[in-house]
Amino acid sequence: MPEFSEVRNLRRRYILALSTIAVLVSGAWLGMQIIVDKQRNFSQLVRLSGEQSGLSDRIAHFAAQMVSTTNEDDFMVAKAQLGRAISAMEASHKILMYGDAEQGIPLIRNDALDNIYFDPAVGLNTAVHRYLGHARTVYKTPRDELTVNSASYVFLLQYGPYVLDAIFSAATEEYELVSRTAIERIKQLETILWLATLTILALEAWFIFRPLERRLRQSLNKLTDSNTELMWHLNGMRQARKDAEEARDELESLNRHLEMRVDIRTRELQRELERHEKTEARLRRSTKELEAANRAKSDFLANMSHELRTPLNAIIGFSNMLRTEVFGELTNPKQREYVDDIHNSGKHLLELIKDILDVSALEAGKVELHEDDLHLPDLVEQTCRLVMARAAEKGVLLRTEVPGNLPALHADERRLKQVLLNLLTNAIKFTPEGGEVVLAVHITPLRNISITVTDTGIGMDKDEVEKAMTMFGQIDSPFSRAEEGTGLGLPLSKGLVELHGGSLIIASKKDAGTRVTVQLPCERVVDMPTNKDQPSLVAN
Fold first, then answer.
1. Bridge partner residues of 507 (DSSP)
2. pLDDT number for residue 437
3. 350: phi > 0 → left, psi -120 to 50 → alpha, else beta; which?
4. Percent helix, percent strand, percent coil in the chain, to nearest 5
5. Which residue pairs from 114-122 have beta carbons closer than 8 angstroms and sit at least 24 positions apart in sequence?
6. Dihedral angle of Cα 323, 325, 327, 328, to the nearest 10 degrees
């Protein structure tokens, strides 16, 4: 309908506008983070550059203490401080020259900084190395040979304040200029994003809210027209009441003809009844035809499932050979990823086809039971081991309550294990983290075998239970959307249990968990008590 199409278009526009705004806001936030990171990095550069001047003064100061002191201990203290200042200045200069990825300090270079650092006459790199060379000379000179006229000492006193400080100041100013320039560019980008956001909001008001207002006005006009039409109908009802009063006068004359009309209607009803009987016969024939069509559908699904399993087995086998690199190594990681996806998808589709095949076979009455005497505690243990990893992965406690002296059970072991596996898988799937799933087996007073699977999961109401018991019926919940499923587990389990002459009953309450009970008749209980002591299994 045109109205629904217009509503869908408005919704698409609204989602597009919100998505664009979200992208712009995210970009603004990212820009702010970049500003903060750059400011932090440039601040460290400016700090290191400024510290160089202080370190040169410290070197000159401690060199002067070494020259002026006459005490051997004071000389050694000043010498140690000089050595630390030389190492600190050399490390800071190395970071400024090459950057430091571990500390997040970038390497910044431009024409001005290259001129400051690498000028042939007074380049900062050469000047620092010369200054540090003379400082090391003073550091290595013995106390009795170090005088105020020493060439290296005189160089430190003259070169630091009059040459190095000026070059350090020029480098610091250039770092600050680069920092301000980079931040200004990001601010310009922030301004562009802000203007783009305002533009999107304006377009949203024009292309979304304006049509929405027009749509509301049209709805109001329709409502007004409907009100007018209702008033017209009310007037018609008043007129009809007046006509009814007039018709009452004619009632007596109509009553005289009533018996004759009743006789006529009775004969018509008899003919109608005959037609209904014929229609009912046709419906019975149609029902038989539908049942035959349903059996044909089940046969078709069973045949098609068999036909699909052959190429699927080939896909799974060949993909597994590629995964295990039987014919050579897969050099591209994407190839390995795609082969894994093909293998896992093929296995999942094969499981789905097996379920469809089982359901179709049940509907067609072609499932045959291969029955034997089996030991229930062993069967429970084997089944629980198959789902323990899944329960542990979800953080669900899996516990069993199975007495070890249960009598043997005459049943199809594979089909019964299939039922228990379906029930446990569903219980774990719909139980949140921290919940519990309990599988219990006991003998009822009537000597029936009762198997119950109880969970503390999300539970179901009455309508959801009915839906879960239908073919492909899945409950809409975050658990069912987050995990794969076909909706065939419960119907298939119910059919297999009924094939054993038993029953499957679900008792559930919303947000209070679910209890599924499988009752197997006493005719299947073999009076042969076992001597095994089977402990309860607990998996977390």
1. 515
2. 92
3. alpha
4. 70, 10, 20
5. 116/167, 116/170, 116/171, 116/174, 117/171, 122/163, 122/167
6. 130
Residue 533 has a pLDDT of 45
Q: Are the beta carbons of 163 and 124 closer than 8 angstroms?
A: no
DSSP state of 525: E
Long-range CB contact pairs, 249-253, < 8 A, 24+: none
Query: What is the C-alpha separation between 300 and 308, in angstroms, rounded?
Result: 12
Residue 364 is given by DSSP the state H
End-to-end CA distance of the chain: 54
CA quadruple 63, 64, 65, 71: dihedral positive or negative?
positive
Query: What six digits make up the tokens of 85?
Result: 């200042």
401 with 536: CB under 8 angstroms?
yes
Q: Which long-range contacts (CB under 8 A, 24 or more apart) does 517-520 make?
A: 517/450, 517/451, 517/452, 518/419, 518/423, 518/450, 518/451, 518/452, 518/493, 519/444, 519/448, 519/449, 519/450, 520/409, 520/411, 520/448, 520/449, 520/450, 520/451
Could you tell me the two tokens for 518? Answer: 């499988």
Stretch 459-480: mean pLDDT: 69
Q: What is the pLDDT of residues 104-145, one digit of tens each?
A: 777 777 777 777 787 777 788 888 888 888 888 888 888 888
Asked if 59 and 106 count as a contact pair (C-beta separation under 8 A), the reply is no
The three-state DSSP-derived secondary structure of 383-449 is: HHHHHHHHHHHHCCEEEEECCCCCEEEEEEHHHHHHHHHHHHHHHHHCCCCCCEEEEEEEECCCCCE
Q: Which amino acid is at 189?
A: L
Tally Cβ neighbours within 10 Å of residue 417: 17
User: pTM for this structure?
Assistant: 0.42
Average pLDDT for 426-440: 90
DSSP state of 504: E
Whose CA is closest to 460, among 516, 377, 524? 516
**DSSP structure class, residue 105:** B
Q: From the centroid of its chain, how far is CA 24?
A: 24
